[in-house]
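G., the chain you wanted modeled:
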Amino acid sequence: MPLYVQRDQPPGVPALALTGERTLPDVPEENYWFQRHLAVYDWIAARVAGLSVIDMACGEGYGSDVLARSARCVVGVDANPEAHEHARCRYGRENLRFARGLVETFTAPADAVVFLQTIEHVHDPGAVLEHFRALVGEGGVVYLTTPNVLTLAPAGAERSDNPWHIKEYRAEELHELCRAQFGSVVLYGLYHARKLRVHELALRVGWDAVHERLRLTKPFYRWFTPAIAARDFVLREGAAAELHGALDFLAVCRP
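Predicted structure as C-alpha coordinates:
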Protein backbone atom coordinates (compact mmCIF):
# COMPACT_ATOMS: atom_id res chain seq x y z
CA MET A 1 0.00 0.00 0.00
CA PRO A 2 1.42 3.45 -0.90
CA LEU A 3 2.79 5.50 1.97
CA TYR A 4 1.13 8.77 0.95
CA VAL A 5 -2.14 9.41 -0.89
CA GLN A 6 -3.79 12.74 -1.70
CA ARG A 7 -6.14 14.02 0.97
CA ASP A 8 -9.55 15.68 0.75
CA GLN A 9 -10.25 15.32 -2.96
CA PRO A 10 -13.52 16.71 -4.36
CA PRO A 11 -16.39 14.23 -4.77
CA GLY A 12 -15.87 11.97 -7.77
CA VAL A 13 -12.15 12.75 -8.10
CA PRO A 14 -9.89 9.70 -7.66
CA ALA A 15 -7.01 10.39 -5.28
CA LEU A 16 -3.50 9.71 -6.57
CA ALA A 17 -0.76 7.94 -4.65
CA LEU A 18 2.68 9.48 -4.29
CA THR A 19 5.11 7.19 -6.12
CA GLY A 20 8.06 9.54 -6.64
CA GLU A 21 7.43 9.78 -10.39
CA ARG A 22 5.53 13.07 -10.09
CA THR A 23 4.74 15.58 -7.38
CA LEU A 24 1.22 16.04 -6.04
CA PRO A 25 -0.78 18.68 -4.20
CA ASP A 26 -2.82 17.72 -1.13
CA VAL A 27 -0.05 15.61 0.42
CA PRO A 28 1.35 17.64 3.35
CA GLU A 29 4.59 15.64 3.47
CA GLU A 30 5.21 16.43 -0.25
CA ASN A 31 4.47 20.14 0.03
CA TYR A 32 8.09 21.30 -0.38
CA TRP A 33 8.38 19.64 -3.79
CA PHE A 34 4.89 20.67 -4.88
CA GLN A 35 5.50 24.33 -4.04
CA ARG A 36 8.94 24.16 -5.74
CA HIS A 37 7.20 23.16 -8.97
CA LEU A 38 4.25 25.51 -8.46
CA ALA A 39 6.59 28.51 -8.20
CA VAL A 40 7.73 27.94 -11.77
CA TYR A 41 4.22 27.37 -13.09
CA ASP A 42 3.18 30.70 -11.53
CA TRP A 43 6.14 32.44 -13.20
CA ILE A 44 5.31 30.97 -16.61
CA ALA A 45 1.59 31.70 -16.25
CA ALA A 46 2.39 35.41 -16.03
CA ARG A 47 4.17 35.14 -19.40
CA VAL A 48 1.67 33.10 -21.44
CA ALA A 49 -1.35 35.38 -21.03
CA GLY A 50 -3.56 35.14 -24.12
CA LEU A 51 -1.53 32.31 -25.68
CA SER A 52 -2.39 28.74 -26.64
CA VAL A 53 -0.35 26.41 -24.42
CA ILE A 54 0.44 22.69 -24.27
CA ASP A 55 1.46 21.46 -20.82
CA MET A 56 3.39 18.31 -21.67
CA ALA A 57 3.63 15.54 -19.05
CA CYS A 58 1.14 17.50 -16.95
CA GLY A 59 0.71 14.77 -14.34
CA GLU A 60 -1.97 15.54 -11.76
CA GLY A 61 -3.06 18.62 -13.71
CA TYR A 62 -2.51 21.40 -11.16
CA GLY A 63 0.01 23.17 -13.40
CA SER A 64 -2.28 23.12 -16.42
CA ASP A 65 -4.96 24.70 -14.25
CA VAL A 66 -2.53 27.45 -13.16
CA LEU A 67 -1.59 28.18 -16.77
CA ALA A 68 -5.26 28.29 -17.81
CA ARG A 69 -5.89 31.20 -15.45
CA SER A 70 -4.14 33.48 -17.92
CA ALA A 71 -3.65 31.56 -21.20
CA ARG A 72 -6.20 31.65 -24.00
CA CYS A 73 -6.36 27.85 -24.00
CA VAL A 74 -4.40 24.99 -22.43
CA VAL A 75 -4.09 21.29 -23.23
CA GLY A 76 -2.63 19.15 -20.44
CA VAL A 77 -1.02 16.03 -21.91
CA ASP A 78 -0.04 12.92 -19.97
CA ALA A 79 0.30 9.25 -20.89
CA ASN A 80 -0.52 7.88 -17.43
CA PRO A 81 -4.19 6.78 -17.32
CA GLU A 82 -4.67 7.41 -13.58
CA ALA A 83 -3.14 10.89 -13.73
CA HIS A 84 -5.16 11.74 -16.84
CA GLU A 85 -8.45 10.63 -15.27
CA HIS A 86 -7.71 12.53 -12.07
CA ALA A 87 -6.85 15.74 -13.96
CA ARG A 88 -9.92 15.44 -16.18
CA CYS A 89 -12.21 15.02 -13.18
CA ARG A 90 -10.63 17.62 -10.93
CA TYR A 91 -9.84 20.66 -13.08
CA GLY A 92 -12.66 22.18 -15.08
CA ARG A 93 -12.27 25.39 -17.06
CA GLU A 94 -13.75 26.27 -20.44
CA ASN A 95 -10.26 26.96 -21.81
CA LEU A 96 -8.67 23.79 -20.37
CA ARG A 97 -8.77 20.21 -21.57
CA PHE A 98 -6.72 17.10 -20.90
CA ALA A 99 -5.49 14.56 -23.43
CA ARG A 100 -3.84 11.19 -23.02
CA GLY A 101 -0.76 11.02 -25.18
CA LEU A 102 3.00 10.77 -25.41
CA VAL A 103 5.09 13.92 -25.35
CA GLU A 104 7.05 12.57 -28.33
CA THR A 105 4.02 12.33 -30.60
CA PHE A 106 1.21 14.56 -29.31
CA THR A 107 0.47 17.29 -31.83
CA ALA A 108 -1.72 20.38 -31.58
CA PRO A 109 -1.30 24.05 -32.53
CA ALA A 110 0.47 25.97 -29.78
CA ASP A 111 2.13 29.30 -29.06
CA ALA A 112 3.96 27.79 -26.09
CA VAL A 113 4.96 24.35 -24.83
CA VAL A 114 5.57 23.84 -21.11
CA PHE A 115 7.65 20.81 -20.08
CA LEU A 116 8.52 20.89 -16.41
CA GLN A 117 10.64 18.40 -14.47
CA THR A 118 10.44 15.75 -17.20
CA ILE A 119 13.38 16.06 -19.62
CA GLU A 120 15.39 14.00 -17.11
CA HIS A 121 12.90 11.14 -17.62
CA VAL A 122 13.15 10.77 -21.42
CA HIS A 123 15.42 8.52 -23.46
CA ASP A 124 15.87 10.83 -26.46
CA PRO A 125 15.68 14.43 -25.19
CA GLY A 126 17.00 15.88 -28.45
CA ALA A 127 14.14 14.35 -30.44
CA VAL A 128 11.60 15.59 -27.87
CA LEU A 129 12.91 19.16 -28.13
CA GLU A 130 12.93 18.96 -31.92
CA HIS A 131 9.26 17.95 -31.77
CA PHE A 132 8.45 20.85 -29.45
CA ARG A 133 10.24 23.30 -31.74
CA ALA A 134 8.06 22.13 -34.63
CA LEU A 135 4.91 22.56 -32.53
CA VAL A 136 5.56 26.19 -31.60
CA GLY A 137 6.87 27.29 -35.01
CA GLU A 138 9.03 30.34 -35.57
CA GLY A 139 7.22 32.65 -33.17
CA GLY A 140 6.65 30.36 -30.22
CA VAL A 141 8.43 29.50 -26.99
CA VAL A 142 9.26 26.36 -25.02
CA TYR A 143 9.65 26.43 -21.23
CA LEU A 144 11.37 23.47 -19.61
CA THR A 145 12.78 22.76 -16.18
CA THR A 146 14.96 20.06 -14.72
CA PRO A 147 16.69 19.56 -11.36
CA ASN A 148 20.35 20.53 -11.01
CA VAL A 149 22.36 17.35 -10.55
CA LEU A 150 24.94 19.30 -8.52
CA THR A 151 22.41 20.07 -5.78
CA LEU A 152 20.13 17.03 -6.18
CA ALA A 153 22.74 14.25 -6.14
CA PRO A 154 25.33 13.56 -3.43
CA ALA A 155 28.57 15.49 -3.90
CA GLY A 156 30.63 14.00 -6.72
CA ALA A 157 27.87 11.63 -7.91
CA GLU A 158 26.75 11.57 -11.54
CA ARG A 159 23.09 11.31 -10.56
CA SER A 160 20.72 11.03 -7.63
CA ASP A 161 19.05 7.80 -6.54
CA ASN A 162 15.71 8.74 -8.16
CA PRO A 163 14.80 5.60 -10.15
CA TRP A 164 12.63 7.56 -12.59
CA HIS A 165 15.50 9.73 -13.82
CA ILE A 166 17.53 8.69 -16.86
CA LYS A 167 19.85 11.71 -17.11
CA GLU A 168 20.32 14.57 -14.64
CA TYR A 169 21.88 17.77 -15.97
CA ARG A 170 24.44 20.39 -15.14
CA ALA A 171 23.59 23.89 -16.40
CA GLU A 172 26.11 23.69 -19.25
CA GLU A 173 24.69 20.35 -20.39
CA LEU A 174 21.13 21.65 -20.42
CA HIS A 175 22.16 24.77 -22.32
CA GLU A 176 23.99 22.69 -24.93
CA LEU A 177 21.02 20.33 -25.31
CA CYS A 178 18.60 23.21 -25.88
CA ARG A 179 20.91 25.21 -28.15
CA ALA A 180 21.08 22.23 -30.52
CA GLN A 181 17.40 22.86 -31.33
CA PHE A 182 16.74 26.52 -30.54
CA GLY A 183 18.32 29.76 -31.66
CA SER A 184 17.75 31.49 -28.31
CA VAL A 185 18.08 29.84 -24.90
CA VAL A 186 17.87 31.86 -21.68
CA LEU A 187 18.63 30.03 -18.43
CA TYR A 188 17.27 30.75 -14.97
CA GLY A 189 18.07 29.12 -11.64
CA LEU A 190 15.51 28.41 -8.94
CA TYR A 191 16.65 29.19 -5.39
CA HIS A 192 15.27 29.24 -1.87
CA ALA A 193 13.80 32.54 -0.65
CA ARG A 194 12.17 33.92 2.50
CA LYS A 195 11.74 31.25 5.18
CA LEU A 196 13.40 28.54 3.09
CA ARG A 197 16.48 30.73 2.75
CA VAL A 198 16.51 31.29 6.52
CA HIS A 199 16.19 27.55 7.05
CA GLU A 200 19.02 26.92 4.59
CA LEU A 201 21.29 29.29 6.49
CA ALA A 202 20.26 27.74 9.81
CA LEU A 203 21.29 24.31 8.55
CA ARG A 204 24.73 25.67 7.69
CA VAL A 205 25.29 26.71 11.31
CA GLY A 206 24.07 23.47 12.86
CA TRP A 207 20.28 23.61 13.14
CA ASP A 208 20.08 19.86 12.43
CA ALA A 209 22.05 19.06 15.58
CA VAL A 210 20.01 21.51 17.68
CA HIS A 211 16.53 20.26 16.79
CA GLU A 212 17.66 16.64 17.14
CA ARG A 213 19.15 17.27 20.58
CA LEU A 214 16.01 19.10 21.71
CA ARG A 215 13.78 16.38 20.23
CA LEU A 216 12.01 18.96 18.08
CA THR A 217 12.61 17.36 14.68
CA LYS A 218 9.17 15.84 14.09
CA PRO A 219 7.10 18.68 15.61
CA PHE A 220 9.11 21.33 13.74
CA TYR A 221 8.93 19.74 10.31
CA ARG A 222 5.32 18.69 10.83
CA TRP A 223 4.64 22.45 11.02
CA PHE A 224 7.32 23.79 8.68
CA THR A 225 6.84 21.60 5.60
CA PRO A 226 3.09 22.27 5.09
CA ALA A 227 3.74 26.01 5.65
CA ILE A 228 6.07 26.31 2.64
CA ALA A 229 4.60 28.40 -0.21
CA ALA A 230 5.55 29.07 -3.82
CA ARG A 231 6.85 32.52 -2.84
CA ASP A 232 9.53 30.77 -0.76
CA PHE A 233 11.34 30.16 -4.06
CA VAL A 234 12.77 32.66 -6.53
CA LEU A 235 14.00 32.49 -10.14
CA ARG A 236 17.15 34.34 -11.20
CA GLU A 237 18.51 34.63 -14.74
CA GLY A 238 22.17 33.78 -15.26
CA ALA A 239 24.79 32.29 -17.51
CA ALA A 240 25.28 28.54 -17.12
CA ALA A 241 28.50 29.01 -15.13
CA GLU A 242 26.64 31.21 -12.62
CA LEU A 243 23.89 28.68 -11.85
CA HIS A 244 25.81 25.80 -10.26
CA GLY A 245 24.11 26.39 -6.89
CA ALA A 246 20.55 26.43 -8.25
CA LEU A 247 17.97 23.88 -7.16
CA ASP A 248 16.42 23.60 -10.62
CA PHE A 249 17.09 25.11 -14.03
CA LEU A 250 14.49 26.80 -16.22
CA ALA A 251 15.31 27.10 -19.92
CA VAL A 252 13.27 29.55 -22.02
CA CYS A 253 13.78 28.44 -25.61
CA ARG A 254 12.84 30.20 -28.83
CA PRO A 255 13.48 29.03 -32.41
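Residues 28-254 form a domain with the Rossmann fold fold (CATH 3.40.50.150).

Shout if anything looks off.
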